Amino acid sequence: MGWGVVQSYGWFLLLGVLVAMYLRSKWESRPVRQSQEGLQYDGEKAIQRQEAMEAHRRRLQEELNAKAAVVAEQQRIKEEEKRKANIEDWDRHQKGLGYRSKGRVEESEGGVEGKGGGVEGKVVGKSKAKLRPDDYSPLGGDGGSCSYRPGRRSGGGGGGG
């Protein structure tokens, strides 16, 4: 009975013994921790690291607050200028001079020309580039690349004719 098991399962037993020997050699060759000094918790270093992180965070927060203050001041100035412009427009409207032009206004060198009924400046129109010539007619033909032409009807892509 003993030899029958070895004959039937011999290769499996041999493979199991080899795997066990390999695992045992790996287990024994592992480095053993000789000292626990490297693993001990160093409170001083941890405190110093934490204080350095806090100082860095404070510095970043101060920089962020300074930038936010500058942006808020610029926004306040812009809103104040817009408010003054709106008040000026309303006063001009009340005097009967009309609202300001929505186009670009070219300021004169002296600012407002006269206080009685002068105009602030000339309205400069934007020159737009024309996309098609003046004599263009969509029904005139000569479309150029706009005409449709179907492709060639060829057979299965073979050679002969």
Q: How large is the radius of gyration?
A: 45 Å
Largest sheet: 2 strands, antiparallel
- What proportion strand? under 5%
User: So what's the oligomer here?
Assistant: single chain
Order of helices and strands: HHEE
Description of the structure:
This protein is mainly alpha-helical and 161 residues long. It contains two helices and two strands. The longest helix has 53 residues, at 43-95. The chain is flat. 0% of the residues are buried. Residues 110-119 have low confidence and may be disordered.
List keywords for this structure.
single chain; 5% strand; two-stranded antiparallel ribbon; mainly alpha
List the helices and strands and how they pair.
Layout: H1 2-28, H2 43-95, E1 104-107, E2 121-124
Antiparallel strand pairs: 1-2
Give the structure's gist in a few sentences:
Helix content is 50%, strand content 5%.
